Amino acid sequence: MPATRQRPHFVAIAERGLSRNWRSTGALVFLSLLGIAQARAETRQCRLPDLHTVGEERAIGANDLMRLRDFGGLGLGNAPAPFALSPDRRFAALQLRQADPATDSYCTALVLMPVRGGGKPYIIDDAGMIIASTSTRYGVTDLPLGTPKPALIAWNPVGRLLAYTKSFPDRSEIWIHDLVGFKSRRLSSSPVDVEALSWSDDGERLLYASRRDLPAARDAIMAEGRSGFRYDGRFWPLSSDMPLPSADVPLIDQSLDAITGQTQPFRPSDKLALHPAVQWPSASVAFAQRGSRTAWSAPADEGIDTPSRLQIRMGNKPLPCRTASCSGVNSLWWSDDGRTLYFQRRTGVGNSLTEFFAWVPGRNVPRRLLSTTDALFGCQYAGDEIICAQEASNTPRLLVAISIRDGARRLLLDPNPEYAALEPGTVRRLEWRNDAGVAAFGDLVLPPRYTPGHRLPLVIVQYQSRGFLRGGTGDEYPIQALAARGFAVLSFNRPQWRPATDEPLNEKEYLRQSMHGFADRRDVLSSLRQVIRQLDLEGLIDPLRVAITGQSDGAVTATFALANSTLFSAAILSTCCESESGLEISGEALDNFYIGIGYPATRASGKPFWRVASLVDAPDARPVPLLIQAASSEFRMGLATYRDLRRRGWPIEMYIYPDEGHVKLHPAHRAAIYDRNIQWLEEQLNPLPATPGG
């Protein structure tokens, strides 16, 4: 799947950073490491639920969403993989985690799930602590991201040994579990993150990559501080008064003896084992090889907006696939005999559909096995089935198997069997076009047992609507819990702006074009205006009681809408806010980036720009109640907006959550955010009485 383009907003590191999970350690620990309470605690192993658990029949509450058992990363991507399939295809290994707001901690477990024969899952070890990730961009590393850092899991070539990482506030560890002896042992410990993990081809050594020179870079910064730091692009003033280490600290490949843990020479053949993508053709998003048959998915032409297409080579002979089904391919697998190619693609409005195909190249056209709005990701070939993580709008993450014969799905693991008894609101997929003809989609969630004929207050949650409708991007707005309290909730999937002319050749040029005349932001606002109008015409919502919420790019959408429309009567922001002072406090590196895509370079040149882009500078913005729930690493960016709007009489309040990154991770904080958002929206929008049990 092609990478999501970066949006022009000050704190847009979550979208780009989800696949990079580097933790800050040592002297520069200024981001969330899950908090003092957990840092002092021992690891706590999760329990697996009884697979026959029958939950209580009632509406969904915020605590039900908070305490869901999760595995894999926070997003719906393929990296890092949400599970690891053994070479003999008998087991899937995954890291399970569950939040506990009462103790502000997580339990973890490393789980083995038999893939065949209907076996039950079992736990082989705890999986360390849940540690906040950081990101590397803008020339520096250790940027506070805050998403949970998942374990890396790797099977040895014969499937007897399982290697996995554990994270702690002061170190990362590599462990090995022996499936025959049923014993786990620690192989090594490192003061920096393990960023890649694999086995050598002979299965005798563990291969891993880390930035082992990062502690020395941090020590050098501490020493530099004795004579004062020169202010430059290394600073990230939002979260620290010290420079960050350079992104140039190299990622170093290393090798360990799998028995003794002693360092071994890293051989040339190890590079491909540890970093398989080095063999992929340029710009590829998927790759598969079986003997002399190679398949990959890559843009056919240059340009950032060029869709990827399936390409095949049989020996030295190229074999094109010209059907529409061969575009948007994001995963590929050859059958064991190398005759059939199976592939996964995204299509539909906003890539809202996931499809699977089987194709015998040279003999027929691809045959569709499955088409669904469910999110299926991290998929791996298992002979007669493809194993995937799956989320549906009303179903949390599952592990499923998809038949390569007919696309039928088989449940392997439901980490939350009790959730099925809860009564969700009804979900309806909406598709529409805005005033410029740009297609958009979203999911409308109505209260359980909603009776047509009365209008509901509407809460808009942003900015992706694929998979389980939990709390929007950043998970701060509990969709089903809000529906149970009498709200209509629209999970809005941000439409992708596309240039009408002058195809951009790179990301920077794309962003410059999207900023010209605020074309991208106006497209999004037009899409929101159109869907609100549609729901009003259907008699479902009260257009005078509409709230918008947002984190990261969604927060910029919200403030732009408040500055340039009167659609909304209340707003909640998880990050705040675009303004001239926000550029100043974000540091030189981020400032340079935004100037490069069209933001004003000086105060004198910026007044016309900020009158449109900034809520605090908008001349005609209508005061509405505004709640800001900000992370300690970002709240300073909202201080100018908070001060100015409060002095002008806006009903505004702001809460700051300590020890948090761009995405908030502390269970206690997340529970408080859920509860405050629900209560605040009830006070502002006055919904109907809550559904019993909600």
UniProtKB/TrEMBL annotation:
The organism of origin for this protein: Sphingobium terrigena
One annotated GO biological process: proteolysis
Domain (Peptidase S9 prolyl oligopeptidase catalytic) ranges: 531-686
Single Gene Ontology MF annotation: serine-type peptidase activity
InterPro entries recorded: 6-blade_b-propeller_TolB-like, AB_hydrolase_fold, Lasso_peptide_isopeptidase, Peptidase_S9_cat, WD40
Protein known as: Atxe2 family lasso peptide isopeptidase
Gene3D superfamilies per UniProt: alpha/beta hydrolase (3.40.50.1820), TolB, C-terminal domain (2.120.10.30)
